Amino acid sequence: MRRVKARKAIRQVQKILLASPAIDHWQEDREQIEAEELLSFVLGEEPDDDEELPGWARRSFMELIERRASGEPIPFITGSIEFLGLDVLAEPGVFIPRHSSEFLAVQAIRRLKARRRPVHVDLATGAGAVALAVADRLPRADVYGTDVAADAVKLARRNAKRLGLQATFSRGDLFGGLPPSLTGRVDVTTIHPPYVPVGEVEDLPDEVRAFEPTHTLTDGSVDGMGLVRRTAEEGPDWLAKDGWILIEADPDAARDVKRVLIRAGFRDVKSTKGLELKVTRVVVGRRPR
Prior knowledge:
single chain; Rossmann fold; seven-stranded mixed sheet; two-stranded antiparallel ribbon
């Protein structure tokens, strides 16, 4: 196989990715970014533009590009995803951590760092990325994560062990997986709930709908707000005085999430957004008096 320079190989496969109907082409230059990421994975390092690729590298690269063009998410191809500097394992059957959730973790860390012995709970934790980011930045914190899926809890525990971080992950429905001793002691609760209305799941891109468990995309409610309402209803019993609930939401749903928290009596409710990614909001609210 004739050798091709890295720059040309990336340009060639960009066209393949751009033509794929299984991929959501929402981000500018997404195809180039993903092609570069997959080539770096094949080579074990970021290539120079003028580096000539040996035949084995081109073959491996094209195999991965074909998998990506079918819709398979890159974290499933590479086996992990970078999240606030942590290499978090990802595998089929568990919701892939989103880069948008880095802002959720940062918001939690900002509210926890002033507490003497902070307690953080991440609901619907999936692979545990948000909880582990808090544990990494705040080693003195008591960090917990819950998820209804056994596979998610197992993966979160593997991630904690692999990264050498202290966090307790347990199976349970929202707060149901927590020890009763945490009642009234949680300083910050975070959740990235499955907020897609049940009737809109079939409209999701193949890269999401065909590869991630349905229960991680929708809670089965008509408006996608079922778990948000439950979190707002159950949260006050678990939160410490002046404790916070942080809910990641689609921008179009942020106003509805705010209404839910306000109706539940939460104070200082507002919608916040990060500077880098505009595709999400974190709605925050302080425990009712």
